[in-house]
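Narrative summary of target 7.
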Amino acid sequence: MNTFKIRRRLVCSAVWSSLVLLSACGGGGGGSDSPVTPPPPSAEVPALSSQCQSNSVARLVQPAALQAGRNQELSLLACAGHRLSQLRWEQKEGTALSALSARSQSITLEPAAAGSHRFELSYQDELGRSYSASLPLTVAADTNPAALRAVLRGEPSVHAGGKFSLRAWLPGLNETDLAKATWRWEQLEGPSLDLAGASGARLLATAPASSSDSLLRLRASADLGDGRSASGEFSLLVQALPPLPANPLFGSDETPSRVYPYKASSTRAAALSECIYHPGLSSSNPNNLCTLGKLPLLGSASSIGTPTVDEIMDRVLVSNDWMGANFERFLREQDVHGDFRRMLASVTAVVIGGRVRPAFYWSATGAIYLDAANLWLTPEQRDTVSETPDPRSDNGSALNFASPWRYVKDNRHAITSLAVAKRASRSLEDVQNALGSLLYHELSHAADFLPPRVHASLLGSSSRVYEAVPAQTASEQLNQRYPFFSLEMRGLARVLSYGDTPTATQIAYQPEDVVRFFSQDRVNDDYSYSIASGNSFSREDTAMLIEEALIQLRLGVWRDYAITNKLSSGGNSADLLVSWGQRGRIGEAAIRPRLDLVLKELMPWLPANFSAGLAAPQALRAGASWGANLDQAALQAGKIKPLSAQQRYNEQEQTTRALLRGSR
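Modeled conformation, tokenized:
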């Protein structure tokens, strides 16, 4: 069996990713005319308490009293032999408290003032039996509000073996004083955790293995060096994985995120839980991947072929409700041309997770998996998105050239990066360019595997997604009719995209060598050369063509790509010297026929002459810095416009960090 996981080229933003997880919710399965044997009567389940008693299903861990101005976590842990699902924490009384993880087994609260509150907690066990409990909460006043205090923020639950991040804050402290702080992280209780990933106020770590739900209690302490100090604690719920198959679809290096159907009442909710991001999925021994009859493509199930926003949202899995709400707003307000709704016809589901990194499409499930870093609008939402870096972070660090890229509009960065420490908000319009480019890329993969021409024939199909892929996909046609030529770039792509060890010859390549390999070929990015093991052609070639073309023609955003010297540690990409580069390479005459081929196959609703709207590419100024090439109008006027502080930060977040880590 061949299934393909297609990941987008790495884009660094100010925060990063998530690996949360999905509790098994049953669902699916065919009907039967055989009589159903009723389950034996079960012993009485005791009332929810802090301890697992005989016949207990779960236990609740919460502070005796909450403290104003501090973070505090409430966690529901499954008792031995049980699994929990359908979680919901609903506030019934008191001043509203923000609980962004209100459909997971753990929530974190940060009350601003003293008061009395009451939550209603509801959940189900592995047999589908429902439970509820009333939780009165008392918040004590802060007796010394002027004192320095530390607050820890992050997603409060993670699956065993999953990567996570936490960040400590000193509210009210100015940036100058904050820069003086030295931090120390320690574990107070729970299964042993490696704290080597602690760096200043941020902790990056991997949750320990655990056969049962358990709590990690962590403390972060700050010393300002002037006699002032503060500390805070965080209780992280480590959720045990369900029994795993011999060959899990999601291996130990990519533990699935905890996700759930955004619309719990959807008729597809059970199938979504079972078929898309469950840790028990396997492609062999046994192959329990779902068929298109069980979870059809959106385009097959829609009566008009193009799914409505409501139909799409019925197929969304999230790790927090805000992700689904923001995605729905994006589709309703920003998809003005209807491209995304039409392209979503080629998927079975959309996963949005705070620990999904990098984003990808997988033909094993037919779903796209999106990083929630592209969707947060408030700092509180951003707190639930992991800062764990892309796993391709060290690829190509030994090579002696760089290939920076960025999106620009009106000679400025088209994407604005916001520092985590600023705790800034952003609008839906602010995420349009980053999320739009991501969706065009990932949905191109989905349509490449299952193009619109086959959707109607797949309704009720007994085939799995990868079994339904037709002959002569767009990527295969592209390879046959308009192949790329450079074997050197194809070899470098194995290093940059898949982490192959570079040869001595590859390490010796200088920027001028790479310019010679790349500039005369007919691809628009070096990621286009990425060919997965066992394949003879690239699927990234197709996705990169559509991504750059659509982001220019629909949003007026251009893509810069260049070959430069290697970025040294401590440097900034803005200071790299351009050996060769172009703005809008997608407009090259040699590339246009390749683009037309894939557009006709994957986006047949577009007019035949759609690519004629692309502008001719602009040459970047060789010998000038990457930063100076941002403002082409200034260069053409004989001026070099210094970058603003924000522009240099954009470079640091969007390009520098990727190049220093050697990732793509």
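Confidence is low (pLDDT under 50) at residues 10-41, 660-664.
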